[in-house]
């Protein structure tokens, strides 16, 4: 509850920071001189729509707020569409949500980022002993999107690791084969 309160306060602070400062009143004038010369302010909806911080905060609030599963899933997907890497850590926390659909949506969102932190989160999901195999297989697919030497090494390590389940190991072999497929297709 405290993070939600802090997020709401942050959203309010962002809105107040965007409001222009009011000039003092001149004697005998009803409106400040600065207000007479300045065009009318846009509505709060248009101001917030152009502010990436407010959009990120709204997405985080909708993703974490107790709401129907579909609403939370859409908010998580919207966080991925924003492309703001600051959303990666909250998305990683949502992987531990008790709802499997929220977990899958959060992992899909993390996999859409080509970022060092996203690669780290995906690798941690694959190596974690308590997460379900379906999430691990989904994370392996996300590592394919990263296309870095360290992601490739992680996939190869999982393919050779006998401690992971057979399904995860087999999926890692399949991802490793897909990694090499585009290079073999070019002449």
What does this structure look like?
With 187 residues, the protein is mainly alpha-helical. Among the domains are: 50-113, Alpha Horseshoe (Leucine-rich Repeat Variant); 115-179, no CATH class. The protein has helices at residues 2-18, 33-37, 44-50, 52-64, 69-82, 88-94, 100-111, 116-127, 133-146, 149-160, 166-185. This is HEAT repeat domain-containing protein. Pfam families: HEAT_2. It comes from Corallococcus terminator. Keywords: Signal.
Fraction in helix: over 70%
Give the N-to-C terminal Cα separation.
Answer: 57 Å
Topology pattern, helix = H, strand = E: HHHHHHHHHHH
Low-confidence stretches: 4-23, 41-47
Please tell me how large the radius of gyration is. Answer: 23 Å
Topology, number of strands: 0
Report the biggest beta sheet as strand number plus sense, adding barrel if it closes: none
What's the shape? globular
Approximate strand percentage: under 5%
Number of helical elements: 11
Q: What structural class do you assign from the helix and strand content? A: mainly alpha
How would you summarize this macromolecular structure in one to three sentences?
The chain is mainly α. Helix content is 71%, strand content 0%.
Give the topology.
Elements: H1 2-18, H2 33-37, H3 44-50, H4 52-64, H5 69-82, H6 88-94, H7 100-111, H8 116-127, H9 133-146, H10 149-160, H11 166-185
Task: Give the key terms.
ARM-type_fold, ARM-like, HEAT repeat domain-containing protein, mainly alpha, 0% strand, Leucine-rich Repeat Variant, signal, globular, 187 residues, 11 helices
